[in-house]
Specification:
Number of helices: 4
Helix content: over 70%
Radius of gyration: 34 Å
Number of domains: 3
Distance between the termini: 129 Å
């Protein structure tokens, strides 16, 4: 009988501790979610600050860089293996470099506006010539049929 009371008391204590652990776990989960949300807000605010006064293209580049940075942070979150962290960091560095090379190429293409303008003028001249030739042909054909 005394042993049964001890077992019963032990079971009640274990049940109480289990309920407390569940509540503690819920609290820790909610705290982690709140911390993640606060960090996300801080990153978004920093991103908005970085875009202030920039052109649309520059703002898009800030967005792309922030997206890459956020993905990197998310991928390395919880990873403790040094080798895996090095691989993730190397992949991030390659992606960042590719992004910057793409931007440089885009800037170079846009910077060569004079060549683009010359080509546009040549294409406009060719199109105008084709339109004139087609109009001349139509007029000649119409006059020939009328006569």
């Amino acid at each position: 009988m005394a042993r049964a009371k001890e077992i019963s008391a032990s079971l009640q204590l274990e049940a109480q501790l289990s309920r407390e652990n569940v509540q503690r776990q819920k609290g820790l989960t909610a705290l982690k979610q709140m911390e993640d949300y606060c960090q996300s807000l801080a990153r978004r605010q920093a991103q908005q600050q970085a875009k202030f006064g920039l052109t649309t293209q520059q703002a898009q580049r800030v967005d792309q860089q922030s997206q890459l940075d956020n993905r990197y942070l998310k991928q390395k979150e919880g990873v403790t293996d040094t080798e895996q962290l090095e691989k993730i960091t190397a992949a991030y560095q390659r992606a960042k470099h590719a992004l910057q090379v793409g931007w440089a190429q885009e800037d170079q293409q846009q910077g060569d506006w004079f060549a683009g303008m010359q080509q546009g003028i040549v294409e406009y001249g060719e199109t105008a010539h084709h339109v004139f030739a087609a109009t001349q042909k139509l007029a000649s054909h119409t006059i020939a049929e009328a006569a």
